[in-house]
């Protein structure tokens, strides 16, 4: 009985790097061929828009795009000698641009399919660029009929049903599906239902890697005709998953992997997002302000896990309100991870600013201006180090703070990237404990190795910009705040609806007002990793200037 192999090529493409992506495709094909049995037919499948990377945004409008793609596809054709290759790319035809997938067999293109369902929600805006396809694509392969679909197509019924009606015995679906918590389980359930309903196996190929705020988690997989997930590629890493089928399209080589626990998946997404932003943009390393608090401690751990301790510098910038505990904890955190650690007091700089502003501030009482000035002194110091050393400043603020504007423009918001931008404070606590657990497991002893000291996790959070200051002086407790924020931001619930959930009216009204008022800050914040179904950035686009009245 004839057997054949399909290789799910889970590749970390770089947006806009057509030549580099072509090299990645070529390398993957060479490896897939080298590891394939000579007597087995081979199909190698790459992800959505793999030639240009996803999402290419307005690069799709560049006048030289079509010529570059045509040149690259000539090389793809030559790579298909004695095998079948499926590649995604943008394609212009009769003045219209399509999100396309093509199939090559032994040097000839045998099929081309234009994506039929173009997502235009959350982080997606494909209708800005692409024209909707209107044809089913079913191509012949080894006596079988294979249906070809692209990403969003499988989130609807008709592309699969119509492919089945056209004779498809197997569906190949290529994707650029970004991570958010719980997304992998949604994919598995969705495709399992399709497979069971239409009695055919589905091959799902996703890309992997970070692209600005989006992180693609890979986790490509195959479901059989019974809806069982029978083969899985790893999450958060490049991989070639080879799956063998027999002549009746039964999977002969199962590669099952347990999905990562949610905290592990979130943490690895943050690490991958930071790593790829640094590496793909050519930074030498990372510098960050280490306050001794939990946010900067977790950010430091993520940075080290992303690019290694030798390329990370932590800077403690104390002021007169900085506690001795914070000084001690910052050093413990830096020492535990083995990073370069500097102490640069900001008091002389602050005093110089206050002296220069003495007449301007005459007769005016001290307020948050002086607090913000401390943060801005720190921002200036970090940016100077960044400019001099070629290190990128990574900010340390979390989603709870960014939601309510608990951050200083041109101060602690200064930086090129944010690891925790979409991470609520309550999740920061959980991730910190998770990272300590990993350290303990790696330590090889029963004694817990604390990357983040326990008292940093348990003590009341504080910006330490004023005497005896703690966050809950001006905010509800984080377990309450984060629930309100999640209902308002991810759930798009009204103020009245959130109050009906049992929260105090004054808390809901105040928190939602702060969210609305802080839009101008978020527009000026650095890009950061997205881990929820609605992060700040591409996901949520509210006008800064508006007269909307919060309520029902």
UniProtKB/TrEMBL annotation:
Keywords: ATP-binding, Ligase, NAD, Nucleotide-binding. One of its GO terms (molecular function) is NAD+ synthase activity. It catalyses: deamido-NAD(+) + L-glutamine + ATP + H2O = L-glutamate + AMP + diphosphate + NAD(+) + H(+). InterPro entries: C-N_Hydrolase (IPR003010), C-N_Hydrolase_sf (IPR036526), Gln-dep_NAD_synthase (IPR014445), NAD/GMP_synthase (IPR022310), NAD_synthase (IPR003694), Rossmann-like_a/b/a_fold (IPR014729). Pathway: Cofactor biosynthesis; NAD(+) biosynthesis; NAD(+) from deamido-NAD(+) (L-Gln route): step 1/1. Its EC number is 6.3.5.1. One of its GO terms (cellular component) is cytoplasm. Pfam families: CN_hydrolase, NAD_synthase. PROSITE patterns: CN_HYDROLASE. Deamido-NAD(+) binds at residues 372, 401, 521. ATP binds at residues 289-296, 396. The keyword 4Fe-4S does not apply. One of its GO terms (biological process) is NAD+ biosynthetic process. Coiled coil: none annotated. L-glutamine binds at residues 121, 177, 183. Signal peptide: none annotated. Residues 4-247 form the CN hydrolase domain. The keyword Nucleus does not apply. It is an enzyme of class 6 (ligase). The active site is at residues 48, 115, 151. Catalyzes the ATP-dependent amidation of deamido-NAD to form NAD. Uses L-glutamine as a nitrogen source. Belongs to the NAD synthetase family. This is Glutamine-dependent NAD(+) synthetase. It comes from Oleispira antarctica RB-8. The gene is nadE.
């Amino acid at each position: 009985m004839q057997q054949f192999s399909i290789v799910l090529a889970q590749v970390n493409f770089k947006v806009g790097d057509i030549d580099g992506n072509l090299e990645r495709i070529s390398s993957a094909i060479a490896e897939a061929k080298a590891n394939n049995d000579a007597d087995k037919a081979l199909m190698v499948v790459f992800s959505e828009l793999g030639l240009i990377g996803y999402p290419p945004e307005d690069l799709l409008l560049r006048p030289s795009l079509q010529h570059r793609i045509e040149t690259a596809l000539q090389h793809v054709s030559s790579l298909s000698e004695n095998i079948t290759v499926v590649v995604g790319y943008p394609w212009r035809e009769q003045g219209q641009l399509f999100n396309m997938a093509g199939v090559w067999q032994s040097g000839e293109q045998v099929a081309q399919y234009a994506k039929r369902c173009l997502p235009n929600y959350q982080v997606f805006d494909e209708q800005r660029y692409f024209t909707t396809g209107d044809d089913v694509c079913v191509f012949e392969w080894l006596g079988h009929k294979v249906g070809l679909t692209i990403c969003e197509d499988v989130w609807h019924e008709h592309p699969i049903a119509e492919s089945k009606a056209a004779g498809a015995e197997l569906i190949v679906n290529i994707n650029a599906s970004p991570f958010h918590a719980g997304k992998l389980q949604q994919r598995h359930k969705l495709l399992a239902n399709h497979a069971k309903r239409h009695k055919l196996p589905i091959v799902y190929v996703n890309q992997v890697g970070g692209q600005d705020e989006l992180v693609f988690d890979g986790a490509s997989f195959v479901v059989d005709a019974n809806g069982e997930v029978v083969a899985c590629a790893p999450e958060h890493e490049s991989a070639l998953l080879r799956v063998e089928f027999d002549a009746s399209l039964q999977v002969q080589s199962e590669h099952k992997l347990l999905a990562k626990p949610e905290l592990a998946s979130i943490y690895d997404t943050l690490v991958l997002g930071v790593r790829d932003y640094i590496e793909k943009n050519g930074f030498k390393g990372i510098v960050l302000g280490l306050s001794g608090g939990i946010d900067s401690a977790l950010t430091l751990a993520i940075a080290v896990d992303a690019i290694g301790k030798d390329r990370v510098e932590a800077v403690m910038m104390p002021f007169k309100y900085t506690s001795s505990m914070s000084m001690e904890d910052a050093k413990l955190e830096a020492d535990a991870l083995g990073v370069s650690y500097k102490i640069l007091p900001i008091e002389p700089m602050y005093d110089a600013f206050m002296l220069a502003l003495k007449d301007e501030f005459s007769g005016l009482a001290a307020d948050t201006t002086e607090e913000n000035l401390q943060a801005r002194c720190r921002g200036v110091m970090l940016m100077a180090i960044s400019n001099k050393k070629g290190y990128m400043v990574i900010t340390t603020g979390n989603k709870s703070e960014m939601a309510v504007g608990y951050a200083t423009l041109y101060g602690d918001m200064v930086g090129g990237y944010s690891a925790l931008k979409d991470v609520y404070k309550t999740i920061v606590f959980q991730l910190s404990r998770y990272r300590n657990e990993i350290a303990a497991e790696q330590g090889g002893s029963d004694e817990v190795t604390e990357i983040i000291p326990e008292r940093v996790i348990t003590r009341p959070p504080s910006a330490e910009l004023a005497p005896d200051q703690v966050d809950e002086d001006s905010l509800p407790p984080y377990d309450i705040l984060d629930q309100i924020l999640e209902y308002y931001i991810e759930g798009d619930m009204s103020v009245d609806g959130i109050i009906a959930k049992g929260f105090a009216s004054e808390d809901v009204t105040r928190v939602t007002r702060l969210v609305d008022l802080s839009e101008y800050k978020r527009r000026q914040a650095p890009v950061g990793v997205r881990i929820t179904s609605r992060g700040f950035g591409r996901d949520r686009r509210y006008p800064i200037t508006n007269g909307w009245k919060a309520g029902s």
